């Protein structure tokens, strides 16, 4: 099933409609951000309730809905640097995720379908990195790779927008709007094997990235194992799996489209931020 952010609230897609999940949240609908994390944590039970109550729950045509990021405020976003050999070669990096470990992106950097990535500088190289993202459904600590599947709620698309330069990775990747997420979370049962999905990214209709997740150095189960060995993973946490070759700069006015097989299509714009970041010393 496809879990969505429908006009700011959790929903699930049913054909060409979206079922509003708020009636099933039992008083947890006062806090929007928390309601999405609740759905990620309890979807096994909630999905039974949806099937039982399908006809009684409110529904809206999908075409009439504005989709937001499917996890608008994850507790954390953990991301893999250099996790495709093709990307390692294009970056000339001696290291891969196996030696670099994982890094954090700010949860406040998330935006959704149709939103704009806002560039904080007009004189720095800022790249797109199209990635498969894992959304956690169950608290995970020291999970072995062969048990990782039980902790995964589903998958979505993620663009790890990245400023190149000498600053710390987290700083270069955590500006507001630097993590487009969506268009929805496809539950793990519908995706099947996440380790062989075609991933493509276009800039202004120009195909820039085209690869398969089979090229991941650390596959999804190994990433969950590594991440959960570093820190406790909680429902709604997002794990960005890394980007294949083809990264390149984005400019104001660009349209970015990320499409991942069995997951969907995420489209965002690019604009220059009005008040540009001034705190980092120019290099
Ligand atoms: Mn990345």
Give the topology.
Layout: E1 2-6, E2 9-14, E3 17-20, H1 32-53, E4 59-61, E5 67-68, E6 77-79, H2 85-91, H3 97-100, E7 103-105, E8 110-111, E9 116-119, E10 126-128, E11 130-136, E12 152-159, E13 162-163, H4 169-173, E14 179-187, H5 188-191, E15 198-203, E16 206-212, H6 220-230, E17 238-240, E18 248-249, E19 255-260, E20 264-272
Parallel strand pairs: 6-17, 8-14, 9-20
Antiparallel strand pairs: 1-2, 1-5, 1-14, 2-3, 3-4, 6-7, 10-13, 10-18, 11-12, 11-17, 12-14, 15-16, 15-19, 19-20
The structure holds manganese (II) ion.
Structure commentary:
19% of the residues lie in helices and 33% in strands. It has 283 residues and is of the alpha+beta class. The protein has 2 domains: 2-65, no CATH class; 77-272, Fumarylacetoacetase-like, C-terminal domain (Fumarylacetoacetate hydrolase, domain 2, Alpha-Beta Complex). The strands form 3 sheets. Strands 1, 2, 3, 4, 5, 6, 7, 8, 11, 12, 14 and 17 form a 12-stranded mixed β-sheet that branches. It has a 5-stranded mixed β-sheet with strand order 9-20-19-15-16, with no helix packed on it. The longest helix is centred in the first third of the chain and has 22 residues, at 32-53. The radius of gyration is 18 Å and the shape is globular. The model has no long low-confidence stretch (mean pLDDT 94). Manganese (II) ion is lined by residues 79, 129, 131, 160, 240, 242-243.
